[in-house]
Specification:
Layout lengths: L1 H4 L20 H14 L2 E9 L2 E12 L2 E8 L6 E4 L4 E5 L4 E5 L22 E11 L2 E10 L6 E7 L5 E7 L5 E12 L20 E9 L7 E3 L7 E9 L7 E7 L4 E8 L11 E5 L2 E8 L2 E7 L3 H8 L2 E3 L1
Parallel strand pairs: 6-12
Antiparallel strand pairs: 1-2, 1-11, 2-3, 3-4, 4-5, 5-6, 7-8, 8-9, 9-10, 10-11, 12-14, 13-20, 14-15, 15-16, 16-19, 17-18, 18-19
């Protein structure tokens, strides 16, 4: 479920690559992951696990005329489907007869979990090469990212030795236990993959659905009306934008921060009529993603990210209007 909260949010940027990455270096393998996820044709089935939640999805990813196209369909539970192209993401929610459309670049989702460039990661993570193993019948190399502080989670990736594609990813808590996992169970890389598999099964039905065209306007060169008193080492602001979920609806402010791997999103709206109940405020957890809600100066702040709860609360408590 957590992945679909982000199906219409922006991806991450990052930093510059180191001058040299050798095969014995963990960054070399991570760089292969970045390239393979965006340049290869592949299709397969992967499992997402977060606590008691287990979700199976089918993915098809093709590069057509130099442009990425992708379809992800959830195979169990509530039916959902995401169609991504180079400049648009369409999220089909058939149970509510809703289509969410956002004009933006290809989203960051498994197996394309890593930012475009990786050099800044080594400042806050120890990156080391692990043992060989087998995932989905393919030989893989484990790569571990161990945080240098308690502000972020650890990560473990399994990389296909032949292609460089990410086969499995885990987020690890402070006890080195997995709190969230993506893993292929069946995978085809290259070969004949039918382009028709990129077509939405709901496209013909969606004519009578509610269509939400999300409009996002980036705020460039403008001073933010909000002060962030707590600076988390390594986390920098990537973007600040006004988001309008539907016509005539009040726009919300969305500010995103990242250390190059972990991301924190801040959503700021006016407090809705009939203020949220106290039980709706505070901290909740959804696997590796924590969500912290508080009211400040007549505004509802929703702070969410794949960081420990203490990190998120410390950061969120330091947000105030100027």
């Amino acid at each position: 479920m957590k992945r679909w909260l982000f199906c219409c949010l922006g991806g991450l940027l990052a930093y510059s690559l180191p001058a040299v990455a050798q095969p014995h270096d963990g960054l070399y393998w991570l760089d292969r992951v970045v390239t393979a996820a965006h340049k290869l044709d592949y299709s397969g089935t992967f499992v997402f696990q977060s606590g008691a939640l287990v979700e199976t999805s089918r993915i098809t990813h093709l590069v057509v005329a130099g442009r990425e196209q992708e379809r992800i369909e959830v195979l169990d539970g509530s039916p959902r489907e995401v169609i991504s192209s180079s400049n648009e993401v369409r999220c089909y929610l058939p149970e509510s007869h809703t289509l969410i459309v956002e004009k933006r670049s290809h989203p960051r989702s498994f197996p394309a979990l890593l930012p475009a460039v990786l050099g800044g990661l080594s400042e806050h993570y120890v990156i080391r090469k692990g043992a060989l193993g087998r995932i989905a019948g393919r030989e893989s190399r484990a790569i571990l990212l161990e945080p240098k502080d308690n502000l972020r989670y650890g990560h473990q990736f399994w990389v296909d030795v032949d292609s460089g594609l990410l086969l499995k990813a885990e987020i690890l808590n402070q006890h080195n236990e997995p709190v969230e996992t993506f893993a292929f169970t069946q995978l085809q890389i290259g070969g004949a993959i039918d382009r028709e598999s990129l077509t939405s099964k709901y496209a013909q039905q969606a004519g009578d659905w509610q269509v939400h065209n999300v409009r996002a306007t980036e705020r460039r060169g403008e001073d933010s009306a909000w002060r962030f008193k707590v600076r988390l080492p390594g986390f920098s602001k990537l973007t600040e934008m006004m988001r309008e979920e539907r016509p005539n609806a009040p726009a919300s402010l969305h500010i995103m921060f990242s250390d190059g791997l972990a991301a924190i999103s801040v959503f700021i709206d006016s407090v809705p009529a009939g203020q949220p109940k106290k039980t709706d405020l505070g901290m909740i957890a959804m696997g590796a993603t924590n969500i912290y809600r508080r009211i400040v100066g007549g505004h509802l702040l929703v702070i969410m990210g794949e960081v420990p709860q203490a990190t998120l609360k410390r950061f969120g408590d330091g947000i105030e209007p100027k």
